Amino acid sequence: MRYADQVAASRAMDPNPYSGHTQRLFSLAGYGAGDWIHAIPILPSLRLEAPHFAIALAFRFGLPFPAPRNCNCAEEFEILDTRLPNHLFRCGTGHGRTDTHDALRDESIWMARDADFIVTKETTIYSPVDGHKADLAIRDRSSGAVWICDVTVTDPISSRDPDARTGRGYMAREQADKKIYHYRNRAPYVGFFPLAVETYGCPCAEVPTFLKLLADTGARRLFNADPSSYQAAKLLHQFRQRWSVTLQRAQALAYLGKVNEASPAPHTPVDTPDADMALGDCFAVAEPLGELE
Questions:
Q1: pTM of this structure
Q2: Helices in the chain by DSSP H: which ranges?
Q3: What does the alpha-carbon distance between residue 198 and residue 86 come to, in Å, rounded to a whole number?
Q4: How does pLDDT run across 259-288, given as a tens digit for each residue?
Q5: Which of 134, 154, 196, 214 has its CA at a distance of 20 to 30 angstroms from the CA of residue 289?
């Protein structure tokens, strides 16, 4: 058995609840967490380049892949530490964390426009009295109904709460509830969608509801079709995949950005992944790490 396969198998059966692998498996089992895998790249928004696909796949399987041992924020990790990929995706010292948020926000805007909503970006019009900017506001052209949306990406293995180790999408739900509380003072006629998602792809319950609203409205406006129609189902399928692919692409770009600005770890190849990286490169790097055991 290849060392990478041994790592994946041992992590799947890891009895230590604090190792992070339990939370990873729960998060991966969330609704829509793996939608990016099924995406056919017929649109730019559904396309993952080879290095981005490789990073997303290795991250999903819990495999070790080329990474610096020390982040430039001074955080140090063991080479096979489960927290490392999530830290590189979410570290606040680089622009990757903000770029991931902005990518999901912008894709949400494009999907809403594709569904023929009127969209406002970074608006305070319908926000609480403190003037906090919502990521986007959408308005139905027919009914005039308004919703504001706020995007957040959270790390599911960062919590030590026992519920987080046994609950699917626990961290996404926690962040969504915080957003709901923050926007509690919005105008009574304004709806709200907290678009919270975990790094492994598990969203809070409001994300599928938001995407279904876009699909149903788009089917009605563009095809004069009802929510149970084939057109609505196709739009929902596409929107779910676009959301999922966007998350994985943005996180892969954040990872590559952090790797390129940090020094490589011992036993890790000096040449970090670049645009020519193939899927096998992520798995091949696990072979030399076997010498550490």
A1: 0.81
A2: 3-12, 21-28, 50-61, 83-90, 96-114, 170-182, 206-223, 230-260, 279-284, 286-289
A3: 10
A4: 776 544 443 333 333 333 333 444 443 333
A5: 154
